[in-house]
Amino acid sequence: MNTPRPSRQRQQTERLLNLLIALRASRGWVSRTTLMNAIDGYSGLDEVAFDRKFSRDKDLLRHMGITIATRAGHDAYGDAGETGYRISAADYAMDLVDLTAAEVAAVTVAAAFWSETDLGASSAQALTKLRALGIDLDEDGAGQGPIDPGTAARRLASANFASALHHINAREAVGFTYHKPGQSARKVRLEPYALLSRGDRVYLFGFDLDRQAQRTFRLSRVEGGIAKLGGREPGDYSIPEDFSPHLALQSSSEMAVVAEAKLSIAAHRADPLRRRQVRTEDGAVIIEFSDAHALAAEIIGFGDAVEALAPPELVRAVDERRETIRDSLRRLGGASVLSA
Length: 340
Known about the structure:
This protein folds into 4 domains: 8-92, Arc Repressor Mutant, subunit A (Orthogonal Bundle), CATH 1.10.10; 101-155, no CATH class; 167-251, SH3 type barrels (Roll), CATH 2.30.30.520; 259-332, no CATH class. The chain contains 12 helices and 12 strands. The protein has helices at 8-25, 32-38, 47-63, 89-92, 101-114, 120-132, 150-156, 159-170, 245-250, 271-274, 292-301, 312-332; strands at 30-31, 69-71, 84-86, 174-178, 186-198, 201-208, 213-218, 222-228, 259-265, 279-281, 284-289, 306-310.
């Protein structure tokens, strides 16, 4: 039986952990030859490949607040004639954390919120590290009782949420399939900048490499997974200093969707509306819309093939438009065409 090959992300995590252990366990500077021989992720690489991978790993650790020092000359514990590396206690030690009672409660609530999601393991590790520093964390959210993360947390922290967050932190360009209702699915190549939630919806921001512009993508519309883009290396792009996720969200066309409509559509009728469905519910078609009056005008155009069931404002808009048409026809003395 073949043993499954660990994922690239897991290989990277194990390599970084082994690198930290090797540099922290040594009393002095560790040579590149030692690292290449002792760490699986580096073994078998030539000098150029090692430098490239090791530089990426140093950058990732630097983003985590851990700096690897470099020295050309070695002390008594190093290998003479080679560049050496080490992580001092000052570079690695975690600063003391002093949380107020309110901050402790917030941390505990947040951990409980993510507990049953793909980010549950990370939130549990964060609590463990804080307890190791002597911080007393109340499991019940500072006496407020057990916390049920509910459906909001599970919808927010999907597998793609965790994956997108990883790629943003690693500064990795990604690829995925995006399907917006009413449009054809398309392949997206993106340099991700940030994640931001509005209610229980999550949006991924970044630079669309094919459109050559900043774009916003609603995470629930990503089909399948989000993967690192081939031919790109971690850290090979920068997030613009003037980038503001909140401003990007406010100006995004993705935010035009503000509600869901529940429609009863006759079989083999009103295909343009049916193609916009995001799901079905009790036999009805659910589509998204931003303007009740504009959607009401569309529904009227399909005659008796479509009936608006919800929300109430859409039902009223359809009824009002139909009544207006009836009044106009009565004044003209014509027959109703609403059932044509």
